[in-house]
Structures are given as C-alpha cells and as structure tokens.
Amino acid sequence: MSLIFRVETLAEIDSTNDALKARAMLGAEEGIVLRADVQTAGKGRRGRFWVSEAGNLYTSLLLRPTKTPAEAATLGFVMAIALGRLLRAVLNVPVEHKWPNDVLVDGAKISGILLESGGITGGKVDWLVLGIGVNLRHHPAETLYPTTDLLASGGPPLTPDQALDLLLAEFRPLYAAWVAGGFAALRADWLAHCRGLGDPIMARLERGEVSGRFEDIDADGTLLLRMDDGALKRIAAGDIFLVARPAA
C-alpha cells in the first residue's frame, strides 16, 4: 500500500524537525508532513543554522520504515533524487546532486536536507524525520557554498504549498522503491546527476581534510575517494569541494 501523506501547515514554528521528533517519540503515526511559513530555529546538517524567511519551503516528514540505522541514513539521497526531478521539470539549467544530500542548480545550492532518527527496536530505527528546505523566492548571501533560489534560476513562482505537492508526488514512488530495495535500488539514479564524479575533490572531515579523486559511492551511500597513493578511502560524512584541475 502506498504511503499516505497528511499535510499540516503552520504560520510559524521554531523547527519543523524538532516538532515532528517530539510527536514521533509520543507514538505519532508515519505520514505526517509538517510545513511552516517561517522557522525561528531552523537547522541544517552538523547543527548549522538554516535561514528560514517566508516564501521558501520548510517542511518535515515523519516516517517509520523497518530499516537499520545505516540503511536509514541513505534516505537523504532519495529525497535529493525527488527534488532533482522536480527542479529539472521546471528549469532549463543543469540540476545536480552533490554528495551527500544537496541539490545544486547551475552549480549553486538550492536546498538542504536533514535526516534525524530515534529509537532502536530489534536493530531497526523506530522513526525517521526527514527535513527539507528549498529556496523558492530568496536565498542567503553568505554561506559555505554558492546559493540560489528557484526564481533567481529562471523558474516559476511556486508557492510553498505548490512546491510541497510536487515534491511529495516525486518522493512517494521513490520512497516505496527504497523501502523495498534500499539505496542500492536508486543508486544509479543518484549517480546519473552526480556533481564531481571522477573529478579531483577535497573532503573536509571532522578531523582534517583529505584530497583525491571522487571515484564512486557505495550501495550504502559512502563516498569512495581514490587517494594520490592509490589507496581507496571510504568517507561516510563530510563536506566536499571540487578542486580545479591543473592547466595542461
């Protein structure tokens, strides 16, 4: 049976992710989608503050798949595929996936995806909260990466509700495929639009930086980095940056 989403909309909240996490711990059923016009304490990966002005899409989904923590961690890739499909349908510029779960429009970041989970029963997570922020009408000026928004990229003036409806329509069948076959079932879709695959990159980790060639991603979403000495390094978390190739 296909997952049924139940959308709830609020004018303002501190964090849609935090609100759904609290409800998840109280036993709320999966399928709740919480959207807010404004967040006062939005957050991104690694605890970064997420600017949340009115006009953009800020939403979180409560899900309860029967997955191990490692399997559950790949759901961000699935949402990136869904968002990428939506954006390619309405834009005439390149839309790419950037490891681990960003989506780039013409090389600039347009979204953020934050996955949080809790509880372990029989080796499986009890719940997942998938948070998504998409720049529809404005974007922050000073960030770690270049940023953009849908309007600035030549896209249509979608409202947050319109964008959410389109995103859920793209996500639903992808989520069903992920539940049935894991990220391995969708890995080729993600790689087909991967930013930097085969290119020199620098990966910024919690403890230092490493450089090499972005060789692949594994079935569990791990980035495979080919070092200069030929060794293959597996990277499970970090920020990556493209490195300019030396002039010929």
UniProtKB/TrEMBL annotation:
<keyword id="KW-0436">Ligase</keyword>
<keyword id="KW-0092">Biotin</keyword>
<dbReference type="InterPro" id="IPR003142">
    <property type="entry name" value="BPL_C"/>
</dbReference>
<dbReference type="Pfam" id="PF03099">
    <property type="entry name" value="BPL_LplA_LipB"/>
</dbReference>
<dbReference type="Pfam" id="PF02237">
    <property type="entry name" value="BPL_C"/>
</dbReference>
<protein>
    <recommendedName>
        <fullName>biotin--[biotin carboxyl-carrier protein] ligase</fullName>
        <ecNumber>6.3.4.15</ecNumber>
    </recommendedName>
</protein>
<feature type="domain" description="BPL/LPL catalytic">
    <location>
        <begin position="1"/>
        <end position="179"/>
    </location>
</feature>
<keyword id="KW-0547">Nucleotide-binding</keyword>
<dbReference type="InterPro" id="IPR045864">
    <property type="entry name" value="aa-tRNA-synth_II/BPL/LPL"/>
</dbReference>
<dbReference type="GO" id="GO:0004077">
    <property type="term" value="F:biotin--[biotin carboxyl-carrier protein] ligase activity"/>
</dbReference>
<dbReference type="InterPro" id="IPR008988">
    <property type="entry name" value="Transcriptional_repressor_C"/>
</dbReference>
<keyword id="KW-0067">ATP-binding</keyword>
<dbReference type="InterPro" id="IPR004408">
    <property type="entry name" value="Biotin_CoA_COase_ligase"/>
</dbReference>
<dbReference type="InterPro" id="IPR004143">
    <property type="entry name" value="BPL_LPL_catalytic"/>
</dbReference>
